[in-house]
Specification:
Length: 129
């Protein structure tokens, strides 16, 4: 009986931990999406690791693309509808920090599907009689 209770306890803890990791992943995704939609104020600092000096800093509504290891791509919403793109060449002597300054109000249950009208190919349905 003790073995069964112990096993059930282990299973319950595993389920709780799995639920937390799923929730954290969902919230992380939602925060990233909010930031990429320019709804989160961030600070990006590029630091020279040899001199410990900040070489570049941007603060504002920022989307950061880190998919290329040698380039850091920063898009800033300067004002409503005006965007500026900055490319930083990353070397072995640079590091960057992306800091969320205000936090994001996201819902871990919310999701949305957006259809862009310009990407939908128009078609005509004809009826053969």
């Amino acid at each position: 009986m003790k073995k069964v209770k112990g096993f059930l306890l282990v299973v319950a803890v595993a389920l709780v931990l799995t639920g937390c990791s799923r929730q954290a992943a969902k919230v992380s995704h939602n925060v990233s999406q909010e930031a990429d939609n320019f709804n989160v104020v961030r600070r990006v600092a590029v630091i020279n690791t040899l001199s410990s000096k900040v070489e570049f800093e941007v603060i504002g509504n920022i989307s950061v693309n880190t998919s290329n290891a040698s380039k850091l791509e920063i898009i800033v919403e300067a004002e409503k509808g005006v965007y500026k793109k900055h490319l930083i060449n990353m070397t072995q002597f640079n590091m960057y920090v992306v800091e969320d300054l205000e936090g994001a109000d996201v819902n871990n249950f919310k999701y949305e599907v957006n259809y862009m009208p310009e990407s939908i190919v128009p078609f005509t349905i004809t009826n053969k009689d």
